[in-house]
Amino acid sequence: MALPKLAPVQPAHDKLRALGIVALNGMFDDMDALGVLRYAISDVLPDDLAIVSSFGADSAVLLHLVAQVDPSMPVYFLETGKHFRETLDYVETLKKHLGLINVHAIRPAVADVKRFDPNGDLWETDPDSCCHIRKTEPLEPITEQFGGWVTGRKRFQTKERGVLPHFELTSDDRIKVNPLAYFTDADVNQYKIDHGLPEHPLFAKGYKSIGCAPCTSVVAEGEDPRAGRWRGLNKKECGIHFDFNGAIASPMTAATRHTLWKNGAFIADPFHEWTEGSDPATASYTHVPLAVFLANKAAFLANPHPLGLLVSPGESIEDVEADVGRFASIAIKFPGFTDGRGYSTARLLSQRYQYANEIRAIGDVLQDQIPLMRRCGFTAFVVTHEPTRQALIEDRLPEVALFYQPVGTAEVPVGTRPFLRRVH
What we know:
Blueprint: H1 15-25, H2 33-44, E1 49-53, H3 59-69, E2 75-78, H4 85-98, E3 103-106, H5 110-116, H6 122-125, H7 127-143, E4 148-150, E5 167-169, E6 175-177, H8 185-194, H9 254-257, E7 260-262, E8 265-267, E9 272-273, E10 286-289, H10 290-295, H11 297-302, E11 308-311, E12 329-334, H12 341-352, E13 358-363, H13 370-375, E14 380-382, H14 386-393
Parallel strand pairs: 1-2, 1-4, 2-3, 4-6, 9-10, 10-11, 11-12, 12-13, 13-14
Antiparallel strand pairs: 5-6, 7-8, 7-14
């Protein structure tokens, strides 16, 4: 019996279309990648489907399937400007080997790179924003031209992809096709062997999942294949795949993926908690407890990697006054809403010590506190309280207009003669 053909893309979300997607996912065997792709191209979205490929370690498998079904199908490669030289060479290798005749490179807007990443190091401080300007923004106008697109994602790769289906319906009624959704890492490697596919030049060197060079590292024996992507960061996706069908997988938004609020948005946090047994000489992107720093001061000061400092209530920031400039971030802990000792620490940092890097609040951070924290010098907030998250997203924090205890020189105290006030 012929499988049903889905209706064309509609401007509004179509429940019947969503049901059709659910039905499609029950009609194919888990491992029938070729059947899924063939049907998607010929019956679901004929002449209205494109491939997005990273040309990474596993890309040859999906592209081999494409070559069998339709080698003229549009294939888009996100040329971020940060790829390994080997990846760019691999694009040409696969094009020639598989006979792909419609491969296009998508590049970020020059103006965006110049404005947001003039030094080329945004990946180090804000990887989500780097991915946004180099991947998400350039890809969006391309995908808007098609009713759907094909990806090489697989369930085993991340927890977020653990319920990935063959077919997804996005929030704007486009269709994502994932022919390899049920493939394991072993399945992928065996497929490459069975079909004699060229290997990515870096695969044999230990790179099992390959993206942009600054955010990709070698994977150790026994590690998850994607462990080398954004290693040490609270980040598993580049951002172009966050629109899962809510009927099949949990919807994900920028606000719910991250807890660090900085510069007007929730972003990926490059820092992680200090763990006992970490080596002070090699630690990187971790908030070192103040007592641990003092006990291993020489090693931390000689450490070339970015580090943070964690200050808990009762600890004195004066103990590290001479070394605050060593830290890219200083996190101040608020164990409870009523504990105000952290405010004094922030004021000392921002006003007395002229500390110019990130001062973040962690712990019991609520919306009523944030305007006061900002006045004292806090520039980032780790927020898990849902009402506070929503208040930040909707820009409706309580305003503070009157100052009985002014901060700095700009605020005018109420009921006094400000010209008599001395700044200490």
